[in-house]
Amino acid sequence: MTQTEPTPAATSAKDCGGFDRRYDVQGLDAIDVAVLDTFAAIREDDPVRYPGEPSEIVISTDEFSPVCPWSGLPDFGRLEIRYVPREKCVELKSLKYYLTSYRFVGIYHEHATRRVLADLVALLDPLRLSIDCDYGLRGGIRTAVKANYVAEDQK
Fold it and tell me: Would you kindly state where each structural domain of the chain is located, as residue ranges?
């Protein structure tokens, strides 16, 4: 007897609609570094000098969401930026646009975290900068990535 239709056990994952699906992703060139803007860390028109150590600035968002380069599915992470400015601070609206530009970029967690670090170091020339990104669970596995930078003259 010849069987013309596969039994459920014989049906491959590929035939089960959705298991072989992949969403298109954008490349690294979609990361909009040009949108980033800065302002002076110290206002020259302020007659009061700022005493003490330089300020540490902490910026965080729960809305960082690049996509998996393999599946194209979104990854959601809590991104925290900590830096001690030398002369410039990052303007927050421009930072939001920059981070949003990752929304369809296929990039691994580790690479995304280091890329944000590299772009902000190039923009700000800070004394110190760290990026912490704690990504949501995927398949029961959590990924947390930390990348640090310390300027040569601060070591």
Answer: 29-154
CA-CA-CA-CA dihedral for 40, 124, 25, 30, to nearest 10: 70
pLDDT in tens, 112-151: 999 999 999 999 999 999 999 999 887 788 999 999 999 9
Identify the active-site residue in 32, 46, 62, 68.
68
- Is 75 noted as a catalytic residue in this protein? yes
Catalytic residue from among 32, 37, 46, 75: 75
* Residue 33 assigned to a binding site: no
Q: What CATH number is given for 29-154 in this structure?
A: 3.30.1130.10
**Residue 147 near residue 130 (C-beta atoms within 8 A):** yes
User: Is 16 part of the annotated catalytic residue set?
Assistant: no
Q: What is the pTM of this model?
A: 0.83
